[in-house]
Amino acid sequence: MCGIVGIVSTDPVNQQIYDSLLLLQHRGQDSTGIATADSSSIFHIAKAKGQVREAFRTRDMRALLGNMGLGHVRYATKGAAEREEEAQPFYVNAPYGIILVHNGNLTNTRELSTDLFSIDRRHVNSASDTEMLLNVLATELQGQIKGLELDPDQVFEAVAQVHERVEGSYAVIAMIAGYGLLAFRDPFGIRPLILGRRLTEAGKEEWIVASESLVLENGDYEIVRDVAPGEAIFITLDGEMISRQCAKSPVLVPCSFEYVYLARPDSIMNGISVYEARLRMGDRLAGTVEQHMPLGDIDVVMPIPDSSRPAAMQVAQKLGIEYREGFFKNRYVGRTFIMPGQAQRRKSVRQKLNAMGTEFAGKNILIVDDSIVRGTTSKEIVEMARAAGANKVTFSSAAPPVRFPHVYGINMPSRSELIAHGRKIPEIAAELGADHMIFQEVDDLQAAITEGTSIERLDMSCFTGEYVTGSVTPEYLEWVERTQLS
Ligand SMILES: O=P(O)(O)OC[C@H]1O[C@H](OP(=O)(O)OP(=O)(O)O)[C@H](O)[C@@H]1O
Ligand SMILES: NC(=O)CC[C@H](N)C(=O)O
Ligand SMILES: [Mg+2]
């Protein structure tokens, strides 16, 4: 998953983009990039491996001139996390000059790379699906242009063509040199994108689009709305905002994993507070715990910092059992799940979490995590709890078992690495060394996220194996397993 932001302002945007990326760091730690456009329509670009604080030097920031810009933090799903040439944004010089950032993952890259080469005669110089997406947009925009000038209708028509050609998930922000900032979301709105606005003292409008609402809040923007699935928004250099629905049959099917793990709890996504959704996950998980074991068998409820805290708190409250924190986190180690490579993830769990003996000795512990994917965290946690003297360890997950690959922007491409794939729940418990395992039911997760909204469907593919875009066939999943990152 990645984090993206784009701003059209009346002042230089370099620092605002940097600050926004820092707020989106939890969505990607592999690499980061910023691009700005100055008044002569020159793009200035800085990108590097690593996290925002270590990637940009003062001299990079000084060189990022202009009142319009965009930024990206990457969590690689195609290509390789360590390749600097796949860091975003990506740039093409024609038509006009376009620079683009993308959150999501395309599922028809094999067809796209053939078509881009043999029909469009375009060269894609990396393994990144984002570079393909940019080249499709550039080709379609080129096809729309009649004279020298570009008008927003042509931009919207090009986005409509992108929707026809590209499959998978994509929330996109692009700058077109000399014209403005374009943002669009795939026809299912799988990945998030939200629009904000603020007024200068002189009454001029400034605009922002970003992955999460907390960025808007932090910059004192008012939330206008989520970008609708399939919709494109074009903001001119003068700050005029124009929007149009560009997809034939858009329907909102947002990714459930945003609410489970990825997004910050203080964000509101598709009208749903992530924090409240996590509390409701806790409520429902408590119900399942009650059905599965006598409550007298649990002395304390304990979260795995950070993401499971709201759910764990609610489980404790609902069950009327004491909530205790026994695992402490080294705040200088990032999120482990989004790190590249299993060796690094395993090492980092140990560096990140430490069990405090007095909270465990002789107690029956109900541990709550938000999700169990590869089991990297849970395996270490169970060992730590036992070493710290726990009596019985019950491990629970606020999400159902992850049994299928996620192909829409979360890097879990291969079934064999998923601890729940092909295993029944007692077998997962045995594998992790826990006395019991309790998972959220699929229907409960769906209800916890969508309660009180008109959203009828979520992307729950990693729990159910049902993929919302047509192109995800068993043959495709096998190909992904053979060729993608792990
Ligand atoms: O089963 P696994 O493959 O270990 O993946 C699941 C774990 O990874 C995530 O934590 P992470 O450390 O990334 O972030 P957090 O601090 O936000 O909880 C998530 O919250 C689970 O704890
Ligand atoms: N997680 C994402 O959104 C990744 C974006 C893009 N697929 C990349 O690998 O760079
Ligand atoms: Mg965690």
TrEMBL record:
On whether tRNA processing is a keyword of this UniProt record, the answer is no
Q: Name one Pfam family in it.
A: Pribosyltran
Annotated catalysed reactions: 5-phospho-beta-D-ribosylamine + L-glutamate + diphosphate = 5-phospho-alpha-D-ribose 1-diphosphate + L-glutamine + H2O
Domain Glutamine amidotransferase type-2 span(s) in chain numbering: 2-238
Q: Where is the active site?
A: C2
Q: Name one GO molecular function term.
A: magnesium ion binding
The cofactor binding remark recorded in the entry reads:
Binds 1 Mg(2+) ion per subunit.
* Enzyme nomenclature, EC number: 2.4.2.14
Q: Which cofactor does it need?
A: Mg(2+)
**What keywords tag this UniProt record?**
Glutamine amidotransferase, Glycosyltransferase, Magnesium, Metal-binding, Purine biosynthesis, Transferase
The top EC class, named as a word, is: transferase
Q: Does the keyword Ribonucleoprotein apply?
A: no
Annotated binding of Mg(2+), by residue: S307, D369, D370
Give one GO biological process term.
Answer: 'de novo' IMP biosynthetic process
Which pathway is it part of? Purine metabolism; IMP biosynthesis via de novo pathway; N(1)-(5-phospho-D-ribosyl)glycinamide from 5-phospho-alpha-D-ribose 1-diphosphate: step 1/2
Q: Which InterPro entries does this UniProt record tie to the protein?
A: GATase_2_dom, Ntn_hydrolases_N, PRTase-like, PRTase_dom, PurF, PurF_N
| Annotated function | Catalyzes the formation of phosphoribosylamine from phosphoribosylpyrophosphate (PRPP) and glutamine.
Similarity-based family:
In the C-terminal section; belongs to the purine/pyrimidine phosphoribosyltransferase family.
This chain's protein is named Amidophosphoribosyltransferase
User: What organism does the record attribute this protein to?
Assistant: Agromyces atrinae
